[in-house]
Amino acid sequence: MTCVRRLGPGDIVAMRDLNALYADAFDDAETYRRDQPDDAWLARQLEKRAVILLVAELDGRVVGGLTAYDLPKLEAARSEIYLYDLAVDAAHRRRGIATALIAEVQHIAAETGAWAVFVQADYGDDPAVALYTRLGAREDVMHFDLPPLARD
């Protein structure tokens, strides 16, 4: 039976396992394995209520995970939750794990008073687009990455 749970400050090993899962699932070792933070930095992030880290475990092994952020809004007294990363180990896909992870973040959204959970998907990622379309309303938007600029 798969268990979905939220990580806390004592879950450094599970967080590292989640990053390894992301590296494999996204074929992106450069981002998820190269510059790993130390345990103290991870523990501080895991303490933050606005950082939502969920794992799906089977027999004590991380087989899926989700990273989301609670973003306070200023136009209304509410927040939105941004689902940033979601992955399931290839051997465990099509078993409802991603849906269970999303359902848990939706419960957290309701408990914290967030008005929506939003997520982006890449064109061509048909499984993700199908999942998100099934669970919510689709908006076609463009996404831009703007680099940070140092002050002169």
Summary tags:
5 helices; alpha+beta; 152 residues; Aminopeptidase; 36% helix; globular; 25% strand; 5-stranded mixed beta sheet; 5 strands; single chain
Low-confidence stretches: none
Number of domains: 1
The CATH superfamily is known as: Gcn5-related N-acetyltransferase (GNAT)
Sheet-strand content, in percent, reads: 25-35%
What topology, given as strand order, has the largest sheet?
A: 1-2-3-4-5
Q: What can be said about the biggest beta sheet?
A: 5 strands, mixed
Counted beta strands: 5
What string gives the helices and strands in order?
Answer: EHHHEEEHEH
Derived structural class? alpha+beta
**In the CATH scheme, what's the topology name?**
Aminopeptidase
Identify the CATH architecture: 3-Layer(aba) Sandwich
End-to-end distance = 56 Å
Average of the residue pLDDT scores = 89
The CATH class turns out to be: Alpha Beta
Q: Per the principal axes of the C-alpha atoms, what is the gross shape?
A: globular
Helicity, as a percent range: 25-40%
Q: How big is the Rg?
A: 16 Å
Count of helical regions = 5
